[in-house]
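Holo prediction. Input below; ligand is EPS.
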Amino acid sequence: MGQFRFLSAGESHGRGLTALVEGIPAGVPISEDYIQTDLARRQRGYGRGGRMEIERDRAEITSGVRHGLTMGSPISMLIWNRDWETGGDPDKVAWTDVMSTTPTTVEYNRITRLRPGHADTPGISKYQQNDARNILERSSARESAARVAAGALARGMLESFGIEIHSQVLGIGGVHARRVERPDWSQVEESRVRCADAEAEEQMVAAIDAASEAGDSLGGVIEVVATGVPVGLGTHIQWDRKLSTRLAAAVMSINAVKGVEFGAGFAQAEIRGSEVHDVILPVDEWPRGEDGEWVRPWPRRSNNSGGLEGGMTTGEPLVVRAMVKPIATIKNPLPSVNLETGELVQAHYERSDITFVPTCGVIGEAMVGIVLADAILEKFGGDHIDETVRNWRAFMKTVGPAHRVEG
Ligand code: EPS
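Structure of the complex:
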């Protein structure tokens, strides 16, 4: 734990975001264009507001990579906010002034009308602020761009182990998609809401349009799937080292995520153990590659566990689902209070998204990728990626009945 470390800095309308990543071994191929693919995916999605028309997110790598390969040293990345240079606050005062880092005597318009559901109220209380902008700027989901950049580095590393991470939207605003076990991921990428069910997609788009018309916002459910994950990442021996703990925390940390489940998830509460647990196949039924060798040890007949037992990976696909609450910034605002007087007002509104559920899937991939990269490094170590891969291959040879006998 703590092998792959990631920190972000930056405000939504400040100069830009910074991502600092440490722990990736040397020798991993990384380029700004590779990171760009995920940053562009994060910006898409029906229901996003005007901001995404302005931003063209690109991570500038400022350290840790030389001639396209990681060096094992910390990797820092900068993502500039285009809105900083070109835009302004709702009163049309330039962000360069509103968010300037230098001292000023100018009284900029403060945000005093608290938004229920946002970080505003506990934030101004805790940090003793009289301007909710000092809270919302950092609590904004803009920060997720830094996560996705860090997640792209993790993805780059995980490629060496054949691990792939995808995501799909399963619901928006009460519209449920038919869950496809192995969707055509390229079709999901083309979907306006990143949903594999074309019929549900139409209904989701209609629900977003209706919410937009009503000046409201929508939440939903996303699913992240990681395939090729080896058995035995994480551990059962301590609560905070369980991979389930770490994945749940990472996914739960995404803005607006209020629930996380694995595999069959909460539905397991309704059915019997005999229907829940994933029966282990006998060795003569194990899927085998062209060379006759089995593809992965200890495969299961089902995957209700979502690829996790006892806080460890089973080798089955990792299936993590998250519930995303509706965005707290609502065009038709809720009644609220003024932070100075406590008097009844309408909550603050400034340009926002109707929903960011499709985007949330891409952020979920990044968070799952970061946790998996950390768990791989924890298990297999290595200062050069070749060393990590060598250790992984050697371990995999020791797993399974035949190999155990060969000793
Ligand atoms: C956000 C409000 C909107 C979103 C933003 C998150 O930004 P703005 O207030 O500038 O219109 O677009 O998300 C991003 C900027 C992003 O890159 O994802 C909020 O209040 O959380």
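The radius of gyration is 23 Å. That is the main takeaway for now.
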